[in-house]
Amino acid sequence: MAVNLPAPVAADLHPVPGVRIGVTEAGIRKAQRKDLTVVLIEPGASVSAVFTRNRFCAAPVQVCREHLASGSAVRALVINTGNANAGTGADGLQRARSTCEAVASRLGLRAQEVWPFSTGVIMEPLPVERIVAGLDAAIAAAREDRWFDAALGIMTTDTVPKAFSARAQIGGKTVTITGISKGAGMIRPNMATMLGFIATDACVDPSVMQQLCRELADGSFNCVTVDGDTSTNDSLVLIATNRAGHVPVQALDSADGKALRAALLGVARQLAHAIVRDGEGATKFITIQVEGGRTVDECRLVASAIAHSPLVKTAFFASDPNLGRILAAVGYAGIEDLDQALIELHLDDVHVATRGGRHPAYQESDGQRVMKQSEITVRVGLGRGTQAATVWTCDLSHDYVSINADYRS
Amino acid sequence: MAVNLPAPVAADLHPVPGVRIGVTEAGIRKAQRKDLTVVLIEPGASVSAVFTRNRFCAAPVQVCREHLASGSAVRALVINTGNANAGTGADGLQRARSTCEAVASRLGLRAQEVWPFSTGVIMEPLPVERIVAGLDAAIAAAREDRWFDAALGIMTTDTVPKAFSARAQIGGKTVTITGISKGAGMIRPNMATMLGFIATDACVDPSVMQQLCRELADGSFNCVTVDGDTSTNDSLVLIATNRAGHVPVQALDSADGKALRAALLGVARQLAHAIVRDGEGATKFITIQVEGGRTVDECRLVASAIAHSPLVKTAFFASDPNLGRILAAVGYAGIEDLDQALIELHLDDVHVATRGGRHPAYQESDGQRVMKQSEITVRVGLGRGTQAATVWTCDLSHDYVSINADYRS
To answer: Pairing with A128, which of A83, B206, B253, B325 sits 20 to 30 Å away (CA)?
Structure first.
């Protein structure tokens, strides 16, 4: 059902030297399902992360933040699906810490060197005992070429595993980038429910890792939305194993820094787009470009209003060029001094509205033609500046309601 | 399909002396459907209004604002359904003005004394010629006891006409209040797509009319949401015909002012609740009370986040006590320094979460019992102050998608 999103081929996912992955069936919520993943990181890697801005963040996010703040090395990630360990109070925090301790004791690490991640149902106690019981098998299975299994092992309502690889030339060496992500509901900027893990063997100075991770999130996962719900558990982790043998990237605006950032952003965007393409019930992939704004922020405000409007999203689902709904969303996005007489609207190549009203040459049949496509670009001109922003989203279908009405059944 | 919303009985709607209503079938969008309403207001009335905050407001809203600003008396309202005259640019403005002129010429008024209202599809040219052709019949039919017809004549996707009456004792006289409204999609605070018209024969000094109308909107229509889309056309009009023969209300904090405000607010809330009960696809009526906030605004922010969450709304539709979704919405509502360890959650009488986690005594069967009801109260305690706010909403069902995917078909 995902929109133009083929499943990855395991052989196309390049191993990243310094990262091994083990996946097992721990029976966390359902039997016979890969639901527990460990990522083992060799010493010497640089790791950074950004997390949900939801104030009701999950226990594992709180623990990750603590471990990040401790300045410890990061040597293992432990990821479960089936239970988000969110809305679980002090008990949930204890369970997340127990999970880290169990991993650490098996690997001879300190608990702070282990980061926990959970996704799934909120407000249910995390079955730590099942996770601990599965750890030995997951660790024993760890290999460098298990990215496809990891993509499977972190899915919730995703219908397609999400994994992409790329290569780039950095400092005269060929570096590898491989990442996985999962959606697929509770998705909106800042950030999606969404777990994203991207690894590279490139050499990156620890001092620029956090900025690099933030820029990747801002250019990819923070630009997608499915339903406007910001999850409690969103996390994006960037691992640089420093194995490629080139001089470490010390500045993101150097030639190597730019090249690495671009290559990483390419993978991050593929992962983020995949979340939208596999958005719950999605039948269409919509790109919303807002230009002519005074600031990037106001362009994002407008793009997000369009992307979140249930009326716009159901019109896309119906292939109905009821495009006034887009204009209405532009109007309520929150730009107080917006002049509606300057608004332009294109749907792909079709000029729908000019100066705030229907374009004289616009024919409904033209709008209908574009609306029937599975990939559509909405372009809005605000006529008040030179800034722009892009958001990617999907439509709102019957299946979205079915999936979310039945999710726990 | 509306939730506990019986159709009004025409005989229960009290005429308001000084207001006559005529409704006709003008064939604006569909044949054999009441779609054109005129409200004729005798001289000496006080009229005020509040309008959508959508910056892309419809042509009739712009014309109403001009006529309101002109300080002219208001002697007639002309309301059509089937076409919103929004997203129609300069041509749409001209068509709204032509409509006013046509009404004015038939009644011996100036155009500024006529206020136009439109609801229906956006970005289609308003068929002024059909409206004008229907005016004579509508005006000729005008009588004081036609409120029920008016409620029918302003419907779009509403399934039930919305009209309520009340009486109150003001200044030793019995005054009458009668109002009508329409929804039922594109509904959110500030304001719903939503037309609301409330008339009373009470005597109100013009100097307090605008404040009175604003307070009515803030206490009713601005507290309801169906899908979070703020319409281009929202309008609430308050008419006081000054016929009741008591000393005019000069201050809203006087005894008479408070009594009148309370009686008007009672009708306004019934009209606003009716919009939610008849929300597109609604199967449940949800009251969201947020308390323990530092400010009313932050309580409304949280209540609105819960009310707008597609995940929360689909859980209500499914009667699924997946209540962590409510906690997630609390977390992303936008209170930066929220302490999740202080959050309490009740579902009717069931204590679901305490100190940010599942309540030890909470049983899923208790949550399930409440979720199956057609009327549910969600109560969230923020634990950081003494302020509170309430928002009313409905669930998100398959029928919402169907209605909005098929609206123009």
So the answer is: B325
